[in-house]
UniProtKB/TrEMBL annotation:
Signal sequence, renumbered to the chain: 1-23
Region of interest (Disordered), ranges: 190-227
UniProt entry keywords in alphabetical sequence: Signal
Name used for this protein in its record: Sporulation protein
Comp. bias regions, Basic and acidic residues: 205-220
Stretches assigned to coiled coil: none
InterPro entries: Spore_lipoprot_YhcN/YlaJ-like
Length: 227
C-alpha cells in the first residue's frame, strides 16, 4: 500500500513539473515579454505582436496595440531605454516614394527638418493646383501633425533644397536660410487650405505663437505672384 502511494506521489510530482515546464516554454503566452500581469509595478507594457492568425495575415495587416502604466509609487518613473524617435531621412525617403506614385508626378525631392517638409517635384500635370494638393496631403499623411508642408512644382528647386541635406537643426542661421527657400516655394501652387483653421501649408490661422512662423504672420501666405 505504501509503495502504491509513493508511486502515485512521484507520478503527480513529475506531472506538475512537466506542466510547469510546458507553461514556461509556451510561446503563445501573451505576457511572454516579462511573465507578469499588467498590475505588477514593474510591468510597463502589453503587446500583441502576432495578431490572430486567419490565413491572410501579414505584418502590415495587424493592428497595433500597446498599453503603458505609470508606476503607482510617487516619484518613481518608468525607465524606457529605447524611446522611438523620428528618422527624418527615412521619412523623406517614404514621402518621395509615395509621391512618385501619384498621377503625373515623375521626380520628387523631399527635405524633412524638425518642423517642416519641403518638396520639389517634376510634373507634366495639366492641373498644377490639384497635383500640388495631392503632393502636400501625401506628405502630411506621413509626418506628425505639427509639421508644415511646402511644395514647388519646379525641378530647379530640387537643387535648392538638396543643399540642406547635410545640415541639421543646430546649423548656423539655418532658420533664416530655410525661411528664404520657403518664401520662394510659396510662389508656386500649394493646394487647398486644410480647413477653416489652417492654411494650405498646415499652419494654424491666428494661433497663439503665430508671430513665430517663419514665413507668415496671420496664417495666410503673403501675396506673391504665382509662377
Amino acid at each position: 500500500m505504501k509503495k502504491t502511494l509513493l508511486a502515485l506521489s512521484i507520478s503527480a510530482t513529475v506531472s506538475l513539473v512537466g506542466c510547469a515546464q510546458m507553461a514556461e516554454n509556451n510561446d503563445d503566452d501573451i505576457l511572454e515579454r516579462s511573465g507578469n500581469t499588467i498590475n505588477v509595478t514593474d510591468r510597463n507594457d502589453l503587446y500583441n505582436d502576432e495578431g490572430v492568425p486567419n490565413g491572410d495575415d501579414t505584418p502590415m495587416n495587424n493592428f497595433g496595440y500597446v498599453r503603458h502604466q505609470k508606476s503607482p509609487i510617487p516619484g518613481d518613473m518608468n525607465q524606457y531605454a529605447n524611446m522611438p524617435t523620428l528618422n527624418r531621412e527615412r521619412v523623406a525617403d517614404l514621402i518621395s516614394k509615395l509621391c512618385t506614385q501619384l498621377p503625373n508626378v515623375n521626380d520628387v525631392a523631399t527635405l524633412v527638418t524638425d518642423e517642416e517638409v519641403l518638396i520639389a517635384y517634376d510634373t507634366d500635370t495639366k492641373n498644377r493646383f490639384e497635383t500640388a494638393d495631392q503632393v502636400k496631403k501625401t506628405a502630411l499623411s506621413v509626418v506628425p501633425r505639427y509639421y508644415h508642408v511646402y511644395v514647388a512644382d519646379d525641378p530647379r528647386m530640387m537643387k535648392e533644397i538638396e543643399r540642406f541635406g547635410r545640415l541639421d537643426s543646430n546649423s548656423r542661421n539655418i532658420d533664416q536660410i530655410i525661411d528664404t527657400t520657403i518664401k520662394e516655394m510659396l510662389k508656386y501652387p500649394q493646394g487647398r487650405k486644410l480647413n477653416d483653421g489652417e492654411n494650405a501649408n498646415g499652419e494654424m490661422i491666428n494661433e497663439r505663437n503665430d508671430r513665430l512662423d517663419r514665413d507668415t504672420h496671420d496664417g495666410t501666405p503673403k501675396q506673391m505672384g504665382t509662377k
